[in-house]
Specification:
This is DNA primase. It catalyses: ssDNA + n NTP = ssDNA/pppN(pN)n-1 hybrid + (n-1) diphosphate. There is one protein chain. Helix content is 55%, strand content 10%. By secondary structure, the protein is α+β, with helices and mostly antiparallel strands. The strands form four sheets. It has a five-stranded antiparallel beta sheet, with helices on both faces. A four-stranded antiparallel beta sheet has the order 6-9-10-11, with helices on one face.
Amino acid sequence: MATKIPESYIDMVRSKTNIVDLIGQTVQLHKSGKNLFGLCPFHEERTPSFSVNEEKQIFHCFSCHRGGNVFKFLMELEQISFPEAVIKVAEFSDLPLPENVVAANQQDQHSETRQLQKLYQDAQVLYSHILTKTQVGEGALTYLHQREMTDEAISEFGLGYAPQQANVLLDFLTSRQVSRELLVRSGLFAQREDGTLIDRFRDRVMFPIQDQNGNVIAFSGRILSQKEHEPKYLNSPETKLFQKRETLYHFAQARPVIRQEQTAILFEGFMDVITAFRAGVKNGVASMGTSLTSQQLYLLSRAAKKLIVCYDGDDPGQHASAAALQLLKETDFEVGVVSLPEQKDPDEFVKKYGALAFQKQLQDHVQTPIQFTLAQLARRYNLNQDADRLAYVQAALQELVKLPSAVEQDLYLKQVARQGNVDLTALHQEFEGAARQFHRQQRAQQRQTREVAPPTAQQPPTPALSTKLDGAAISERRLLYLAIRQDSLLARLAADDDFHFNNEQIQALFEAWRDYAESAGSHSLSAFVDLLSPDLQNLLMEIEMMEVPDEVSDGEIDDYQRNIIQAKIKQALVAAQQNVQHATEVGDEEAEMVWLNQVLNLKRQLI
């Protein structure tokens, strides 16, 4: 941004913000030893490798190697500049901005991302104003009220109305000097054959779609007066900011409740989420009109341990529930399913039975995945006929053999026996046969997989969580770690003109810390991070997350230095031996003798 933020203000924001509080809004953190761990927000993973050190006010991912302080976290997460991150952290901590920074921030057009976010926000404000404050929006507002939509829900979800009149949004944004290029990239407009732009959304109730940080990134519009060849719902096209597979409707607003209850409820559509909200269920989200994706589940996994699927009770909704359960098998969620009675969707159920009945349904009628599967099987067959009952039993057994728990198997065998009206003892015998056949098939598939798979040596290596280091490299990292904490050691190393770290990046970190420590004012690791390039930041965070005692003996420090020096001598020795070999091959006896003497001198230094 044009105006430089004072260093004193940056220091104040950093010192008054707990990195755990800010990161905890995005990542579900759990204490383990000195640090807190969670799933990394920068890449998908099953095992937590993202670590936060509250004492040092830093974070580091042992898998993707990103790391830094509170500002760096937001810069990485939201792809914003350092000044933008400072402002966002200040707002998070309720710290007032200096007047000159406020003015510069209002004029800031730093990035296309920020410009698009402002454009979408302006569009949302316009649509909301038209819906709630103008005569043009009265029909849409009446429609929502008839759907029992309260003003609280309309405000919570930022609903609006795009009128039938041509180019209301285009004229509004053009009057604000928004460039044509940005208008095109926003996806809010369509182009005629002659190249002129027109509003994409007309005569539609507008549902703003937000990213995980609460920024409006797209819209979905529900048509108010159904017209031939017009879709009921029209979504913004995917853009730089909006990817359907990575977006969950209402996630940003629901996340605090999801985190508190450790549970998220997955609905089928926008109106279901809003209906649930009106009924007092505040932890509901929905996918974006597409099948549930692994990216959406990963987003939820950083806030919730339990996921309840509550899709519509009709056949398409139940098929969608079955598909979601199939995907959820590959996750660590505790999974439940709610099938609303009478094939109703949440809106229909709440209208007929009320909010309390809906809450009770979500609390007391949660099925396990196998319960849901058995119920779906039972719906396919006429259990009053012997042939269908036998078919149901056989299909149910094929599902029960997949359960890992013998207790679960026994529980549901009893249920199947009652449902199919068959003898439990006979059913157990049938189950044992089905289980043996299932396990034989599993073993055969495993053998086939091993036979088809290429030799291990030809398979790509599994990425390591951290770089494998030799003794000298470990010594370098530990020595730097201690030099950052011990002024006497830092001074000793700085005064030794003959000593250098072999790793150029570690040497650069050492010199940067030395200069920083000699500067006026107070010093902290978190503030030092802001002075470094991204690659040095990540390396420093990796070093800072090492398990190293802050106090070690002088003898151990001497060992670290000796390892570093000897590693340098060994490198020189290898180079000298290579030069000897080269001189011998070309017949240069004089050069050969020079390099042989060099080899002998280096070997003496290693003794």
